[in-house]
Design brief:
about 400 residues, alpha/beta, D-Amino Acid Oxidase, Chain A, domain 2, six-stranded mixed sheet, globular
Length: about 400
């Protein structure tokens, strides 16, 4: 019999750290905590490992963001992803074949030029390229053909690419387990006990756990979990939809994004096209796909690749995205409740940030010191007028 990737444990009555959420952020935090010598860790997942946003995303990895703070953070994550297969001894199938964000008007070209310059000042490989070079990189893209929105330029980010999301989740789960963390699936958190401003315990459907440190690493329900500890979050939850087509002969070697058309597409190692758009306009917890999304995404994809008109869609799904006012996450502790940490509000870009979030938050918890790359994302920024505005880099959900 083959060895289990992670073991099943009896739920202990106390742990040093309890992490709520068994996705990439929770599991990465657990793994990196074990590497810092913390052993008595519980990861609580209401369903099964990777059920939430980690299993419902489109697995794009990049660091070509807009703000210096965001660029530095996501570039740290790309660096960890590049070493992840070796670090965790597991093939996560990271393919860095480039990421192109298209511009269809002069304003779009100016915006991408600004992003490219900011990226390069932060040491990130990004540059603006124009139609001839775009056509060389993606020969099948409708660059010079008839199009309602002509392609004038693109932000080319060679380190960007796609990864196998379930492999990342499994690898971190196995690594955390080997480091001594306990992973508890089918364990739903029902309450967080706080006394005199200090976390005391977590109540689950399987019993009460005494702990002085709780990490909220949930997606979709982050605001509800934080409310259990008496911490309010400036978050709205919106569905994000995507779909996948039948397998095709490989033709697309880069991730293509158009914020004007509100569409993005990549091709997996199995030949499927993964297609997405922006979050739904309305706040909701629905995980159902809609015909409205499918019609819009297909229409805009055909603007870019007209020859795909007869391709069949095989599956459609939705995930939940927690959106903050400045489109940046909330990471770190809270001044209101001692021992309560968060890695939440990831919107549409959480999976690509998983390694950096886990790595830096684990350091924060283990040492009591806030790493410099985490400081801009503290919850206190919302009342200190220090927002990290990433909307221009996340106008399409990718």
């Amino acid at each position: 019999m083959s060895e289990r990737m992670w073991r099943q444990h009896e739920l202990q009555d106390s742990y040093d750290v309890v992490i709520i959420g068994g996705g990439v952020h929770g599991l990465a935090t657990a793994y990196y905590l074990t590497q810092l010598g913390v052993r008595r860790i519980a990861v609580l997942e209401a369903k099964y490992v990777g059920f939430g946003g980690s299993g419902r995303n489109t697995a794009i990895v990049r660091s070509n963001y807009r703000t210096p703070e965001g660029i530095a953070f996501y570039n740290h994550s790309v660096g960890l992803y590049e070493q992840l297969a070796e670090t965790l001894d597991f093939n996560v199938m990271f393919s860095q074949h480039g990421h192109l964000t298209l511009a269809h008007n002069e304003r779009g070209v100016a915006g991408l030029t600004e992003r490219a310059l900011t990226n390069r000042l932060q040491g990130v490989n990004s540059r603006v390229i124009f139609p001839n070079e775009i056509q060389e990189i993606v020969p099948d893209l409708n660059v010079f053909g008839h199009c309602r929105f002509p392609i004038m330029a693109a932000l080319y980010h060679p380190p960007g690419g796609i990864i196998r999301h379930d492999a990342v989740v499994w690898a971190y789960a196995r690594g955390a387990d080997r480091g001594g963390a306990h992973i508890h699936q089918q364990t739903e958190v029902q309450a967080i006990e706080v006394h005199e401003g200090q976390v005391q315990a977590v109540v689950t459907n399987r019993g009460r756990i005494k702990t002085g440190t709780v990490v909220n690493a949930t997606a979709g329900y982050a605001s509800l979990v934080s409310q259990m500890a008496g911490v309010g979050l400036p978050i709205e939850t919106h569905p994000l939809q995507a779909c996948v087509t039948e397998s095709l002969k490989p033709f697309l070697n880069s991730v293509i994004v158009s914020s004007t058309l509100h569409v993005y597409v990549s091709q997996t190692d199995r030949g499927e096209l993964v297609l997405g758009a922006e979050v739904d306009d309305y706040a909701s917890y629905s995980l159902k796909g809609t015909l409205h999304f499918l019609e819009g995404a297909a229409l805009h994809l055909l603007e870019l690749f007209p020859f795909l008109a007869s391709v069949k869609v095989l599956r459609q799904w939705a995930g939940l995205c927690d959106m903050t006012p400045d489109y940046s996450p909330i990471i770190g502790d809270t001044p209101d409740v001692k021992g309560f940490f968060m890695t939440v509000g990831w919107g549409t870009y959480g999976f690509k940030a998983g390694p950096a979030s886990g790595h830096l938050l684990a350091e924060h918890i283990a040492t009591g010191k806030t790493p410099d790359k985490l400081r801009p994302f503290s919850i206190t920024r919302f009342y200190e007028d220090c927002l990290v505005g990433e909307k221009a880099a996340a106008s399409v959900s990718h």
